[in-house]
Fold this protein.
Amino acid sequence: MKKHLKFIVAIWLVLVTVSCEDYLKTNSNSSFSDEVTFSNVDFATKAVYNVYDRLTDEYGGWAYMMFWFKCDNDIETCFNANANNHNDIAHYAATPSTMYLSQPWNALYKAIEAANICIDALPKSAIWTDEYAGEAHRLYGEAITLRAYFYSELINLWGDVPFKLEATTSDGEFYLPKTDRDEIYEYLIQDLKEIEDYIPWMSVTQTTERVNRAYVKGLRARLALAYAGYSLRNGTFETRRGRNWEDYYEIALQECKEVLESGKHQLNPDFENVFRTLHGYSMDMTHKEILFEVAFGRLKSGPVGSDIGVYHNDTKYGKANVRVRTPPSYYYTFDRKDIRRNVACILYNYAKTGAYLNKQYPASLQGLGQSKFRREWIVPSMGGDLSASRYTGVNFPLMRYSDIILMFAEAENQVNGPTQAAKEALSLIRERAFPEDQWASKVMNYVDSVSVSKEAFFNAIVDERAFEFGGEFMRKVDLVRWNLLGTKIAQMKDDVRKIITNDPTYRYHSKLQRYLFWKYKEDGETMEILNPDFDLGSAEIDGYTRTAWFPSSSASSINTMNGVLDRVANGYDAAKNNHLAPIHESDINDSNGMLRNDQIP
Amino acid sequence: MVNLSEGTIKCFLKKNLLKMKLTVLCLLLSFAQLLASKGFSQSQAKLTLNLENARLEEVLLKIEQQSNLYFIYNREVVDVDRKINVSFTNEEIGEVLSVLFDKSGVEYDVRGSHIILKENSAQAAQQARKVSGKVTDTSGISLPGVTVVIKNTTRGTITGVDGSYTLTNVPADAVLAFSFVGMKTQEILVAGKSSIDVILEEETVGIEEVVAIGYGTMHRKDLTGSVASVSGSSLKDIPVSSAGQAITGRLAGVQVTQVDGSPDAEIMIRVRGGGSLTQDNSPLYLVDGFPVDNIDDIAPTDIASIDVLKDASSTAIYGARGANGVILITTTKGNFERKGKVKYNMYYGVKNITKTLDVLNPYEFSLLMFERFGKSVERYLGSFEDIDLYKQIKGTNWQDEVFGRTGTNMYHNLAFSGGSKTSTYNISLTRNDDKAIMLGSVYSRTNLVINTSQKVNDWLTVDMNTRLSDMQIKGAGAAAISSTSYRLMQAVQYRPVNGLSDYVDESLSEGEELYYAENYNPVLMIEDEYKRKKNLKFSFNGGATISPMKNLKYRFEFGIQYGQNRQRIFYGIETPQVQKFGIQPIANKINTHSTLYRMANILTYSKRDFLPGSNLTAMIGEELTYSKTETINSGAKYFPKYIDAASALAMMNLGMADPIATNEYAPVKVSSFFGRLNYDYKGKYLASATVRADGSSLFAPGNQWGYFPSAGLSWRISDENFMASEKRWLDNLKLRVSYGKAGNNRIPIDSWKRTFSTSTYRLSMGGKGEGDQLTTFIKPSGVLANSDLKWETTVTRNIGLDFGLFKQRLNGSVDIYKNTTKDLLISASIPGNTGYSSQWQNIGQTSNKGIEISLDGAIVKTKDFSLSGSFNIGFNKNHIDKLGEAKTWLESSGFIYWVSGEYQINEGGQIGEMYGFETDGMYAVDDFDYADGNYSLKEGVPDGSSVIGVADFGPGSMKLKDQNGDEMITLEDDRVIIGNANPKHTGGFNLEAQYKGFDLSAFFNWVYGNDIFNANKFWGSINSATSKYRNLFNIMNSDNRFMRIDKVTGETVTDPAQLAQMNKDATIWTPQNSMLTLYDWAIEDGSFLRLNTLTLGYSLPKNLLDKYGIGNLRIYASAYNLWTWTRYSGFDPEVNMRRSSPLTPGVDWNGYPRSRSFNIGLNVEF
């Protein structure tokens, strides 16, 4: 028996020794530690890609930043009724319990955290100083740039927000108060300056899907202009510029100038081609007009052409349930000769049934979309089996070279007035927009005529940006910084009401047509409009189909359009300039009393 | 050499042994005869006898032969079969007789040449005799294998096949003890009887009961802690598929909630309320010592007993994981030296939905749509003038379509058990097929359990325990419901009619509008959502018990559990899941493999009379567990439109493959050391102490170890001398006191460190040679790490009183406890500006206190009729003592994701407090000033427009109570606590009656005093601007609700007088409302009393069965969920649908409706 006892004691001792501290160390093969993630350039790149990925997130990313939150201005509008959801956000009618207010807030901070983790880790990593230092610095710069972009979106949506520059740790402070946006902008603008040299030009990066030197400079200029411009201030509810606004026009000017002078980017001479290229899932590396795009994945993410774009009622090109619209007034503000009009705002949709099967046909007045994005342009086509796919994967442009040019013109005008340089910049944009035979009047004469004063030139910039960027969802931010949001929305509504009633006092009344006369081109699919911007009476014209255009004849159509128009910006009060959104109550709840909704009067 | 087979040897020995014995006997006899022949006088004759192991009769015969004396005796009185050894040489007859009959209870009287043997009246008490009889159970079935022992001796026997036994040489004053596993041991005084028949009763909860206490067992009478038990036999008739369901309401202080009516519904078990805040409060489940995640896959018929350890004195031995109680399940084993037994149990049942919810009929539905959406619905519903046509249309009742079918449930169990002197076995096979009431939902399971043990020699016993469970779940409904597809709600809210689109143009039924508000045809959706879940689990547990010396036992246990979970999911084109992905099918295969190892070494020393009058048991042990999980998820999207599920899943490359996602989780390891000391003095004063040290890999180095001590004392008052006078009625009275700590480590893996994992799903970075492919990136974990995480500790204090009255006719116990949980492991909400939404933290403190009472009584007990009952009730009150920095926060159940903050977590409050507005009727027309078609609120009337939605606000809107009197209703200031999900008490009672072969039992359970957030009703009474074509509950019909249009013309009424006149009888506000915050109207009393199971059985008479060799045959009929008394308006008050956080209990959202079932069953035993 003693023998057994010894045996047991032996087993016991062995097991006890085995089960000491080492036993409790575990690791998952499916995850990396901090050290491993930033131990080499490949992994570190993938960690920075995570920051890029945040741009492709629907709830927090594109759907809100790209269009719902950018809606209800004079070019991009939501025509749907308030429903306690994103419609209300677009209409400036959101309340703290409105749906979809919380997701973008949290997703933007998640993106910022993703960037902060890289920003913290990279300088401490081995690759920061070894042979891959250049690449590591570039990654660091990219994280800084994206972080600045995400903060700028937070400010666009909510004004003053909590500002955090380090990755969150468990012993850090979670509950942060709001930081004045002036302070945030000043920091970010300085921050971008410091990393600028880390980021190569696009001629080196050869991609539009990662940030490059020109984008960093452009973003810096954009933030500087936003700072220098107006916005509604928390607590006081005054609408004012950033505290040292004049200095920041200089910064914007300097940055844009450097990009222009670098000669690294050009305008694509074919305006339409800029957008068609996106739909072919390719990049224009010849002119490099687009500086930065959101890298959506075909069938996996991105609403370009489906949620925004031209309406397709389940055609051979697929389905596009366009969520937001363009008011018809936008169409008529274009010069008749402006090439950009027929890219940015077309008068047709695609139909599914009847005689118009898979063909273009005239849209209704409330049915115009953002026609820089068209499902029919997608190559390879997403019709057939893929016709219902919402995730087109077509990249969304976040900044184009023409923005740099116009920002330059704007900043130059602010700092030095309508100088020759400013005029040249504006001319550059307009030269592409008009056929060469029109340059004398539409470019030279026009530019001269608007260069008579700083104010006139400024107004020309306001208009030119509308022509150039309509449908790219930049208008609301522009109007806010110019403090023109209320004015322009009112102007748009007034225009539309006059259009639908064929009011002769309408400022572009001469362009209105009661009937559209059109026929199919030889391809039997695309439309040729005989009178795109003038009236041809009501008599039938041989060979052309006649369609009643603006519905002056039908009271019910007028009612419908009026009803739709009433919804646009229905929560916006020009006197209050309440362009900011409330913070969702769940985020207020979580803030432990640090956050209050003090940004909306 | 002769080669002999084993059989021959045995035979040879046997034959020769007999021969030798006979030879010896013959020799001895002849020798005796030789000596005796010397001759003597009659009474003075001298005898010489030398006999070994001879029967008394033989001896007497020899004497007669030697002496010419004749014996006269009665065989009934004189045990002539008695074996004796005699050795006399020339002894006088008197001396011989006195030796022969010394202490035998026989006296002798020599009368001439006759010797009369007769009963010695003086010695009768000590007289030894033969006792025989038969042992049966209460139903009259004979019990083989019952141990019959003469008390205080080692002599005894075992009953034979027919239950009969014979014991010879039993002293007349002896006590016979009849014992049998699962039966109450009976002790019977022989008192001179020679025939004793015994009826053994099944053991019920009583003081002699043996209970499992973790790494050992104990007699209930020796417990110092609080342990509730239920035996397998009381579960056998309940027609449910899982063990968890079967114990509902059976145990005091154990609340069992089946989250909904699905056949594979999660069973939520809470022991004494559960201390954790945002933690899983499930108890630790151990099946035959092996830790398992849940007990859903244990067949009720395989269970021998369930023991629930409730206080720290008993749970602390499981230290780490014992804080929420421990549930020990012992599966049926064979018994040593028991004849083999075959048992067969089956039942077959049908079931139906108990209740459907009233929704608007087609006319009311159409009217509502016109009221809310005006002419825009004409396209589908036709013009308003024709609305009366809808009165003629019956419409589709989608609830009938989805849940209306009759389900069936088939259960078979076949078990073999038995054992020899050295081995035991129990083999049990169970098959359960459950076709649920919901369309397409089928659940089936096969269980195989093999338990064997082998006595290798007198110091070593090995045992092996194998379990296999193979579960298959078919259908969308039977699987867990995702929060995004309101599948069950669709059956309520889907439009009852298609209007014109049925007749005019097919394409009208498509398009965004009809899909708006996520309205999907529930039948199409179910048919188009294919789900198969296969869950295969193997578990092997082996053990060896070594007794190297007396009092010392060493046990080694080793177990492996291997689990394989395969999910196959297919979403067809009618499901909401595909809407974003091109309305093309999606298929997914998810395989999860898990492995769990456990090893334990336990050394037990027990010594009786360790000190005079005291007993000691000491145990030390060590245990290691290791578990690892791995998942592989492969999916594809954009399948061709009309592919069927089976083909898609079999040909995944037809679709566009998603990147394969694999995850090997870090192993979870726990290392433990533990010890226990039990000491009792004279069985009256009992003490126990345990200590356990646990190290868990879930915490950061430095915080891994937790130490959990406990102690308990108990005092058997009834054994004290001063209580002797009360013995008549008080059999047992015991006071127990215990105090101890237990821990909790249930947090996700790697919560303490930041990890990065790879992901590939949206981003597509072109350029760098990656083309149109998706880009893989590395992202940090979604939950913020916390390196300071440590064990959560629960301190429990328990005082209990056990009593047995009137000869154990009434047994019961009362327990009072207070549990305090410190350093709560909380998934705390942290502000979004951190980049995370939550972090695991040790925050605050909660406590649960309560009383538990359980009673068990035999009310009537006669030969033919018996009536017994049991009752248990538990009161628990939860309290949040401390909450760290935040002090208070709002928690969202997330039932629909835009509604938030329905629960308030507040220091000083309770978990489960519902938070929202109080309703105050509706706004009357004259609450407003009217001008030019616009209503504006009068001064002094609280303005709820910011909450209700400005666009919908007007006369008839719901009025909310203005709590702070500022005339503005705001989310910040006017919400209060409007409900509490915690019941005041829960319990159950059981009545069992038996008359001859019939048995009848009824089991009731109840929950009292809790509130339920009826989210179905909430959502079904709001008609927001996004609710186009969504149907509402009938409470909102046009007779009840405030109408804003004229029922006849369909025109909107703005005139105040007309509006007021039209709505003078309105009882409920208009559903036109965008408000999506909780209000008290949606909170309902969830109290209920349920007749859970009613069973009527009949056992066929034994004499009839004997002919066919059947031991026992019982047929029964039972009804499950027969009746529920409740005021709750939803499907069923036993519901808890939002469980991702325990902070939001009692939400009724999309629960699978519970069914009522009727079953017939059969128990046979051979």
